[in-house]
Automatic annotation (TrEMBL):
Pfam families: DUF1501. This is DUF1501 domain-containing protein. It comes from Symmachiella macrocystis. It comes from the Bacteria.
Amino acid sequence: MHRSSTTAHSQAPDWQSGRRRFLFNSIAGMGSLALASLLKQDGLLGKEGIAPKPRTSFDLAARKPHFEPKAQAMISLFMHGGPSHIDLTDPKPELTKRDGQDFSGDITFSFINRASKKLMGSPFKFQKHGECGTELSELLPHLAEIVDDITLIRSMHTGINGHESSIRYLNTGISIPGRPALGSWLTYGLGAESDSLPAYVVMTDPGGHPVDGVRNWSNGWMPSIYQGTVIRPREPRILNLEPPARLAGTLQEQNLKFLGKLNRRHLENHPGENDLEARISSYELAARMQGAAKEALDISQESKATQEMYGLDDPATQEYGTRCLIARRLVERGVRFVQLFLGGQPWDMHNSIRTQLPKVCKRTDQPTAALVKDLKARGLLDTTLVHWGGEIGRLPVTEGDPKTGGRDHNGQGFSSWLAGGGVKAGLAFGETDEFGHSAVVDRVAANDYQATLMHLFGFDHEKLTFQLNGQERSLTDGRPCRVVKEILA
């Protein structure tokens, strides 16, 4: 009886409960209004708007960028291993003058057991070239012929000495694995220009994949339709491109039509399946490629003079020259992004730099310059951006014996160059210190480089986004960076 009485007295009448609820709601509401007013007064209230809707369908349909682009295609000649800028593109008289002396600054070594603080001047001579007067090493005579067509950036910086981490930083926007490559971002943003060739093509080396392997052209967390399509380094460059004789012609067309009907029906029953949609698109592209790809890869159509310009008549340059020539043919036919890689990391010269550096320069210099010349002669350079560079440079001190050794990694300052696609011609931009160790003037970080590329293709790097798990992700992902407008034409 007592327990029931207590329970009865603890329950407030309905009219009291309603009054409390009314007062609470009124106070809370007035508080919210007051808070909103104060935030608006201080300029801290977010603007009204509708969040951008994520794409629900992924394909390679051509899309317009945010503003008028300068570049429509890109060929990236990536030099894995870290070309030695102080022996190739960034002359340092003071380093040569103080050859053999101890370096007084701080250095981060990757291989401490072979480390030295003895300065090593370049054993190669530099000379001014072109109307611009840019100095280049004697190891790059063909680059010297196009120096008036390039922007040489002497102040690249990642701040990372490791190969894989710097590669990912330059190629995906951050040093951790698992993100989409630059080519994936461009094809996601722009789509394809051709419906019978891939938008993003990767050309690998006969010596094998580059360091960090397939991550160099991975689509990351984007649908697989945006990953790079690999063209083999030897014939047949695309396996199974042609159907067996018994299936060719009308029979193949009927089979593909029927398969397409089944695939579309299956997709309708499984909406939102991005991988399924990408796989169907890949199958359809493969069928269309049978004629177009075979023609694009057939360099026998090129004149003898063109083939010789790329070095196809010289065993030292034939292989890389062939790939550079195919890259031009692909871009000419609407491929959006082409990357050429070297096997392993041939520019990683911890030993024998005096003998090894001339060899890799001999292999790549003539074909690289020929590509720029050829694009320019065909009126394609204005809209095709050509990139040459690696992920790091080399230290100004010797590693091992000064006469037979090499140089350790250096992510603090190194060189890359760009040509065409809206960049200035005949420009040397940025500086490293007097020894070539660190970028000190107009430093270009990896995200600056990416923001600038996006700008050339007509994109605000912060607004080209992909929604991942409810978050808007971009190539630069909100990290501090800038468009390097000083190098824009």
